[in-house]
């Protein structure tokens, strides 16, 4: 009977654990942790929490698909990412979509959103009121709020694409399991 450690030296268990961590973290952050934090925390604390979570979350979301590509138990990474390979569409493509979505959030969208958030803080200091205070907003604050909303929406959309691609791969992976 193999031990737990000897089982983990094979790529199959590592692959399944990486997939489970990827899907679980995506689901939790998107539908549980983020939603509950938004409901429970005042806006400044929620924003501060998200600023700390997102870099770690997006980094994890970029690393885990790479692990999936490198540890696929029956195919090489080259055959998974080669568009002419028969394994590309049903295995490599969903993993690459997750990787691309995560990298887009990590490298482009999240830094841009953070920059706009910092610009809002500067504008708050100039105006003496918070971006979320009731009442009319200055043109500058309204524009910053709109830009922030667009970037936040883009991040959520890209994250949802990654989650759906992970689910797509999960169905493919689940169909390969034989009991």
TrEMBL record:
Keyword Membrane: yes
Transmembrane segments: 16-41, 53-72, 92-114, 148-171
GO cellular component, one term: membrane
Keyword terms: Membrane, Transmembrane, Transmembrane helix
Keyword Transit peptide assigned: no
Positions in coiled-coil regions: none
Localisation: Membrane
Domain TMEM205-like residue range list: 17-121
Identification of the protein by name: TMEM205-like domain-containing protein
Taxonomic lineage of the native organism: Eukaryota, Fungi, Dikarya, Ascomycota, Pezizomycotina
